[in-house]
Amino acid sequence: MVSEVLNANELYKVDPVFGHHSFNNHEQIVFCNDKDTGLKAIIGIHNTVLGPALGGTRMWNYNNEWEALNDVLRLSRGMTYKAAVTGLNLGGGKAVIIGDAKTQKTPELMKKFGEYVHSLSGKYITAEDVGMETSDMDLVREVTPYVTGISESKGGAGNPSPVTAYGVYMGMKAAAKFKFGTDNLEGKSILVQGIGHVGETLVDYLTKEGAKVIISDISEERLEAVSKSYGATIYRGSDLYSEAVDIYAPCALGATINDDTVNKIQAQVIAGAANNQLANELVHGAILQNRGIVYAPDFLINAGGIINVYAEIAKYDKAEIMSKTQNIYNTTLEILSNADAHKITTNQAALNVAKANIDARKKENNK
What we know:
Blueprint: E1 28-34, E2 39-47, E3 53-60, H1 65-86, E4 91-98, H2 107-118, E5 124-128, H3 134-141, H4 161-180, E6 189-193, H5 197-208, E7 212-216, H6 220-230, E8 233-234, E9 247-250, E10 269-270, H7 281-290, E11 294-295, H8 298-301, H9 304-314, H10 318-326, H11 328-342, H12 346-365
Parallel strand pairs: 3-4, 3-5, 6-7, 6-9, 7-8, 9-10, 10-11
Antiparallel strand pairs: 1-2, 2-4
Helix pairs in contact: 1-12, 2-3, 4-5, 4-9, 4-10, 4-11, 9-10, 11-12
């Protein structure tokens, strides 16, 4: 979530951290390195005005360290606004571990990462993200209490992915209501890009409602399995952004709405689970607005996961988790209507709500 994004090979031209285009006044950035386990991680703490910075840990085989730094900065900033717009007493943080989760992740590496989290004394609370499983969070819990999303059998809220998917589903229905006049998705053509844990659950919700679901993923194995399970159509074209569908749901990695794609998109609604979908918030958000495409801000509708893991801190039950997540529908409608009334982008309207909540708390803290 930045106004400008640099390619990794351009980042050396700016100051390494404070001058980084994604820095955006982060409070703290922690670089973690352990020779014995091979751990190379970065923890970004963006803002703790509303509470401790909570955000998942992503393990990804980045092309280089600049790319990893850019990702953690963008993601942690997004978590600040995700918590704020949802009304949670949490700040924004995120962590990335550089490496291949399938071949380089070990119990020793996860525990060592947990030790670094513990060294921050609760200022940062970690959770599950791309490349992580609930079992990994259980390992981190062995060395620090500052972790959420642990197994239900261990007293946690469990895997947040199903709740994230439910929130996206609610946000998508709200966006459909705003654009089409009805939130009934039956018969709507919906392209889901990325069918990991969240994407697959979203496909389940959509097919049960009778939507015409098209799926895309880098894994042919996943495509075949999900298609067989839910009857979804596998996208076999050469340019999914130009596909004439009603709704585009980006559920993989971020920045899929960029200079190359933003004018190709034929969908009338964009509502998905991926973080930082707009490569350039100002430019691409405005283009979507001018083209009449309704964009449901990602950090608003994918907040189900943080609502789920926050339950471990706030001590509320599954029923309240689902109730708070269902309310994403109402919040999305309000923000879309506000954006339309004030002739601003939907992303800016959501940011305004989040920033107002942070500013109000800051004033209270300064009294």
